[in-house]
Amino acid sequence: MNPFARKKQLLSALKDIKDDNNPVTCKGCGEKYGERELRENMYVCPVCGRHYRVSAPYRIKTTVDKGTFKEICRSITSGDPLDFPGYGEKLSEARKKTGLREAVICGTGRIDGIKAVLCFMDSRFFMGSMGSAVGEKITRCFEYAARKKLPAVVFATSGGARMQEGILSLMQMAKTSAAVSAHGEKGLLFISVMTDPTTGGVTASFASLGDIILAEPGALIGFAGPRVIEQTIGQELPEGFQRAEYLLEHGQIDAVVDRRELKKTLGDILRLHGKPERRKSS
């Protein structure tokens, strides 16, 4: 290697090591600690337990058994059916920035040895909004799960329907709900995991149809936002309204689960529902 190139590489490596523990101030409690501590704690504040938003690839890495995830429906992406001004450019920017093709990654994989169909939404891509491609991918996943008699697990996060696709976006609510229903009619399990935020058309469709509905601590869950509701009804909302803990207290979800316990919880639920598939001997 060229000596100058080698020196540049070493300096870059040293910079990465130096920046590896950048100071972080928690938005919840104001405590200060290093980025390394936050990362090693699965992006949960070690002091107050605030759960920071994470990407779909990160969730796959920390939830699915290593080497078992196989992506499906990867080629399905949104077009620009309405020629919405600037939409095509924004899609290109989102793909370049996140490395994703759409706001959801779908596939099959194992959680604690149990095979399932898995969908991971990502708030970095158009705030996880549900357009025609997202709806189609989730629908196909439930259809696949029904054919293969597999349980389904969906990690939801969304700002709602994607307005740039108009009625085509809203139609995905009915389509995904019908697919979930058909999957359930076969006696198959659907676990919905709501993360921060899960709102709009996603909350009003498949995310609220799980046989078991889990949520991460502090997740914002609802249809319209709190400010919109307050302006509409002209009343002040209760403290903690639309947060996961409030919904649990009022019977709208089944459990609030710390991210650090989520894989084990999912594995326990899947195991209780049915025996893990035996692997074929090589």
Q: What does the model show?
A:
This protein has helices at residues 3-19, 35-40, 56-63, 87-98, 132-148, 166-185, 200-203, 226-233, 244-249, 259-273, and strands at 23-25, 32-34, 70-72, 104-111, 114-121, 152-158, 190-198, 212-215, 255-256. With 282 residues, it is α/β, with parallel strands linked by helices. The chain is globular, with a radius of gyration of 20 Å. Residues 10-18 have low confidence and may be disordered.
Which key terms come to mind for this protein?
single chain, 282 residues, alpha/beta, 2-enoyl-CoA Hydratase, Chain A, domain 1, 2 domains, 7-stranded mixed beta sheet, two-stranded antiparallel sheet, 9 strands, globular
Tell me the quaternary state. Answer: single chain
Within CATH, the superfamily of the largest domain carries the name 2-enoyl-CoA Hydratase, Chain A, domain 1
CATH topology of the largest domain: 2-enoyl-CoA Hydratase, Chain A, domain 1
Portion of residues in beta strands equals 15-25%
**Number of helices, where a helix is a run of at least 4 consecutive DSSP H or I residues:** 10
Low-confidence stretches: 10-18
Mean pLDDT: 91
The second-level CATH architecture of the largest domain is Alpha-Beta Complex
What's the count of strands?
9
Distance between the termini: 43 Å
Amount of helix: 40-55%
Tally the structural domains.
Answer: 2
Spatial order of strands in the largest sheet: 3-4-5-6-7-8-9
* C-alpha Rg (nearest Å): 20 Å
Overall, the morphology is globular
Order of helices and strands: HEEHHEHEEHEHEHEHHEH
Q: For the report, how would you describe the main beta sheet?
A: 7 strands, mixed
